[in-house]
Amino acid sequence: MQVGSFLQQLDPSHLTAPHRSLPRAVRCWSEEQLTNQLQVPVLKSRDTEAKKKGGLLCDLVLEQDNHHLNSRSPVHVWGYFFDCMESERSQRMGNACMPLKRIAYFLCLLSALLLTEGKKPAKPKCPAVCTCTKDNALCENARSIPRTVPPDVISLSFVRSGFTEISEGSFLFTPSLQLLFIENNNIKSISRHTFRGLKSLIHLSLANNNLQTLPKDIFKGLDSLTNVLFFRDLRGNSFNCDCKLKWLVEWLGHTNATVEDIYCEGPPEYKKRKINSLSPKDFDCIITEFAKSQDLPYQSLSIDVFSYMNDEYVVIAQPFTGKCIFLEWDHVEKTFRNYDNITGTSTVVCKPIVIETQLYVIVAQLFGGSHIYKRDSFANKFIKIQDIEILKIRKPNDIETFKIENNWYFVVADSSKAGFTTIYKWNGNGFYSHQSLHAWYRDTDVEYLEIARTPQILRTPHLILSSSSQRPVIYQWNKATQLFINQTDIPNMEDVYAVKHFSVKGDVYICLTRFIGDSKVMKWGGSSFQDIQRMPSRGSMVFQPLQINNYQYAILGSDYSFTQVYNWDAEKAKFVKFQEINVQAPRSFTHVSINKRNFLFASSFKGNTQIYKHVIVDLSA
């Protein structure tokens, strides 16, 4: 309560009412009662209270009934007595002592209020482990950072300390520090927010400790005084110059603070190098990984992705249920959910193809023939529009779609002894047989790609057929006849189950999968494919290259061990081992990009279909 507001509440009648004779008693107020605005007066013996000098009690004789001052009362205020005249003398002199009594009354109340309101906490004392002067504190053998130091201290030093870590907010209670020295200790770690609140700090020394790294943004907020030259001393530490210290290299490049030369103790390639001389480009701190995101409770063989009506969809072939399951992205739950399905028998491939704005799906089945479905937007379902001739396609194993000179095609690789790998062409109303390539060769895979025979010639369409009975065969498109012609094969590569291609900086590469023996990576040299890398493989039926943003991967599945994920090393111009994932009997790997998220779908012939999320991690963050 403010003094002014308290005085305004006083009753002026206490000073102006006529005096009366009163009993010999004293009304006194304690500190608590004064604070509560004189609510409860306490009667005590006058002789007892008259002996108290310099206390909070006022020795006032008041009328018991009307609380008026008596002209005969001696007034005791903080040890001083104002002795008013006897009533007879008072009568002769009129009310001459009334002003004095008024002054005494107000001094009593005002003194009590000021004392009550003026109480302040005691200033922090110098910690026992420190030696303090007016503005300096030196702490030796401290087991922790003192929580309080005298407020006038602007320089704080620690030597031979017993602590090895400095925790968050250790200096929140010393905001006025300008100089902080934590030198010649055994400090191993410091929290990111250790120096939070030190807005006045102009010199910080962490020299000669055992620091191997510093958390990012540890100096954030310490440069607010732009007109002050901030000085930091980090010498004599064992800094490991890895990604966790990349921020320091960046900070040293643009700070105005003065920093002494500091050196790396590791890794070996940077040992004894000045950190000040390093560049952020010296650190490769961005890594990626495939993190498990979702399990689909069914087996699968092939997985394809397509765009239709401005949305992305995934279609999965389920061999045991015979269904083509279509998935869409749930923008609320952030997961994939069922959209529709096509029911069949022992389905091995569900291949979508969008011609203009119409969606078609080629459904390849081991039994019951293969069919083509059309999406009816009015009925909101799939309708079968065509059967694929069963005499040619007896045991389909793979389907590839492609477009040449504005004409749409698809090719079915047939793996039966009596079947034909056949190309079909869209004629405006349906697909009809355009060309049969292989008869009785038991083809297991077909891959469409474009390569140039010489640097001066534009790339031309090619097909590579993989077969269990011969080496992979390369077919080239003949523009004059509008047919593929047998060009050559890939030597020394028997028993190749599948071939998939990718490009790096304009060069064309292929990944060749072998169930027994080494799988290979080969590069197109202008007239043939040349070996560049071998991958040990056992029980592999898929070696799938795929690109996610700027990252080129190749994933080698296995029926008997973990699936190996490789990442392309641009400097070495080959793949390096990157990650292992556990997929039972994988048959395909498909990249799906939705809402700036990248996923890897992994089909499984013996277990659940798995979805992995492609995660980018910054090790310097």
Automatic annotation (TrEMBL):
| LRRCT domain boundaries | 237-286
Question: Which positions, given as ranges, span the membrane?
Answer: none
UniProt xrefs under InterPro entries? Cys-rich_flank_reg_C, EAR, EPTP, Leu-rich_rpt, Leu-rich_rpt_typical-subtyp, LGI_related, LRR_dom_sf
The family database entries (Pfam families) matched by this protein are listed as: EPTP, LRR_8
Residue ranges of EAR repeats = 289-331, 335-377, 381-428, 430-479, 483-526, 528-570, 574-616
Statement: the UniProt record of this protein carries the keyword Secreted: yes
Where's it found, cell-wise?
Cytoplasm; Secreted; Synapse
Q: Which UniProt keywords apply?
A: Cytoplasm, Glycoprotein, Leucine-rich repeat, Repeat, Secreted, Signal, Synapse
By what name is this protein known? Leucine-rich glioma-inactivated protein 1
Q: Which gene encodes it?
A: LGI1
